[in-house]
Amino acid sequence: MAIVKNVPFLIWFYGFLRTIKPIKNNIKKYREAGNLEKERLEILKAENAWGRALVKRAGITLNIKSAEALPEGPVVFISNHQSYWDIPVCFAAITEKPFGFVAKESLRKIPVFGSWIEDIRSVFIKRDDARASLKAIEEGIELLKQGFSLVVFPEGTRSKGSEIKEFKKGSLRLAIKAEVPVVPITIYGTFRAYEEKGYVRPAEIDIIIHPAIDTRGMARKEAAELPERVEGIIRSAMP
């Protein structure tokens, strides 16, 4: 019964993606031309459109708290992961900087949606393939060096509730190796917009964007302690 309730939203969603196809074409055009600045602007345009439209359509109330302005240049956002809705909620909350995701390989296979996630400069990881995972990390580092930001969900999968699962080791390797700032994010309530009942429904969601942590010149000991530090920051803002 829950699947049936999702049908109208899915029909609308795929229709919406068709309406922003011109932006997708522009992203491809500027990428092929090597114009990274204009490519990033088009990605940001697409993500802003996604965030506004999806949150409004679902009837989501989004409470955004940000301690300070985001730093200039690329960053790695580190967030807990409650729901499929974490992706559009990030689009709606982070409107000044384009970003892709470090995502599981299976997302690439979702019709239309998968190609969009790829187009916004995401990195796909095969969880059980160590060599492929290492290659993905190297790809992510290169994207950061080119000025593209990334979102990492270090739990590795959705919690589908209010609890935070254990963070995977190495989740901050991208930021440390590329020497870009880390921005912790706490998300609460997205599971209520889908996972709690199994269909899309209105929900009130809190997203807290914490102060950035600079990784440039970070000592080895501090770098080793960074994952635990970031996890503590994220957990501290949970209700």
Polypeptide structure, described:
This protein is α/β, with parallel strands linked by helices. It is built from eight helices and seven strands. It has helices spanning 2-19, 21-33, 36-58, 86-93, 113-119, 130-145, 173-178, 220-236, and strands spanning 61-66, 76-79, 99-104, 123-125, 149-152, 182-188, 204-209. The chain is globular. The two termini are 31 Å apart.
- What integer is the average pLDDT? 94
SS content category: alpha/beta
Q: How far apart are the termini?
A: 31 Å
Computed CA radius of gyration, to the nearest angstrom: 17 Å
SSE string:
HHHEEHEHEHEHEEH
Provide the spatial order of strands within the biggest beta sheet.
1-7-6-2-5-3-4
Tally of individual helices: 8
Largest β-sheet summary: 7 strands, mixed
The share of residues in extended strands comes to 15-25%
What portion of residues is helical? Answer: 40-55%
Q: Please mark out the parts with pLDDT under 50 across 5 or more consecutive residues, or reply none.
A: none
DSSP, total strands: 7
Overall geometric form: globular
Summarize the structure in short.
The chain has 239 residues and is an alpha/beta fold.
List keywords for this structure.
alpha/beta; 239 residues
Task: Summarize the SSE layout with pairings.
Blueprint (H helix, E strand, L loop, with lengths): L1 H18 L1 H13 L2 H23 L2 E6 L9 E4 L6 H8 L5 E6 L8 H7 L3 E3 L4 H16 L3 E4 L20 H6 L3 E7 L15 E6 L10 H17 L3
Parallel strand pairs: 1-7, 2-5, 2-6, 3-4, 3-5
Antiparallel strand pairs: 6-7
Helix pairs in contact: 1-3, 2-3, 3-4
